[in-house]
Amino acid sequence: MVSAHPPRTTDPVAAGAALRAGRLVGLPTETVYGLAADATSSEAVLAIFAAKQRPSTSPLIVHLADARDIETWATDIPDWARALAAACWPGPLTLVLTSNGHAAREVTAGGATVALRVPDHSLARAAIAASGTGVAAPSANRHGAVSPTRATHVIEAFDAETVACVLDGGPCHVGIESTIVDCTGETPVILRPGAIDIDMIARVTGYAVSTRLEHLPATRLDAAPTPAPGQARSHYAPRAEVRTCASTNDALELAAQLRTTGRRVALVLGDGPKPTGSPMAEDQVLLATSDAAEFARGLYESLRAADAAGAEVIIVVPPVGPGLAVATLDRITRAAAPRDADQSDASAPS
Ligand code: TXA
Ligand code: MG
After folding, report:
1. How far is it, in rounded angstroms, from Cα 335 to Cα 296?
2. DSSP-derived secondary structure letter, 323
3. Shortest CA distance to 30 belongs to which of 89, 82, 96?
4. Is 330 in the pocket of ligand 1 (CB under 6 A)?
5. Which of 102, 191, 301, 346 has the smallest count of CB within 10 Å of its CB?
6. How far apart (Å, rounded) are the C-alpha atoms in residues 88 and 84?
7. Is 31 near ligand 1, meaning CB less than 6 Å away?
8. Taking the model in full, what pTM does it have?
């Protein structure tokens, strides 16, 4: 028997009722779609881990309807973390704070800290408000796969027994996951780069900000060779192998080379407009822009499109620069990383 996919809804009150009843709901946010459940219910949260096949050692972000709800979940909040919340919420910023124990222990993976954010999406906040609680929500993809940026991606990934409904809030306008800042030390530490960048965090807090990517130190694109064929499986990873190049010219050259060996290639270009005069590449270019925000918005969708088109290799030219370029480079580096190294790190985003 083919099981049905979850129904689509645009009614946040219905989504909130499902959450209150302990069910899983696909939740739109400005970054990526989340797979949400009542963050105070161990049973509901365990269903998230089961649905995603996510290791239980990886904690979840609790999404709040209103910044004032921070007090319900966290304690010993430094003034500079409050300043970040005031400046950036609702928005693509997650604050790691000392938990007061209100979140189910599965949310924090048994740890002493809790990650909180108020999403910049009115339907999401309406659904959370209607649920009467905060909702734990990882990205609504299976562990290690590409995060969803449209309701359809979530609907297709799960069945109706597992997910009560998917709240359709349209395509995500940021397109990559939130910036995560650890606020439990003396000064802010970025754990995952996102649309709220290091300069913004430094400006708001008045501190020098450090970065501790728990995962891969992806701050610049190495000219080093990309992973060997067949090895490129990782977090945020499509089915196809991901290779990186420093420029569109390099990408076209590599594409031509790969095609001579009969491999199907797709290109995702972050250093300028779609190249012309190269008939070989034109129809395989799934994204081409030098605007980092536009690149971030389209990145995951283009990785999905490459898989759907049956590409075997996706050649990506990451945008260069500060802000969102750093964040997209981080995701691309992970997508191109060998899967084994990646999965040994249970704290890595999923
Ligand atoms: O934009 C986002 O953040 C999206 C949308 C749905 O809000 N959510 C998301 O969730 O990306 P997820 O589960 O895919 O990534 C959550 C990340 C993981 O890397 C996890 O380790 C980290 O947040 N995290 C959660 N709680 C934490 C904590 N208490 N301390 C440190 N890291 C934490
Ligand atoms: Mg994720």
Report:
1. 14
2. T
3. 89
4. no
5. 346
6. 6
7. yes
8. 0.92
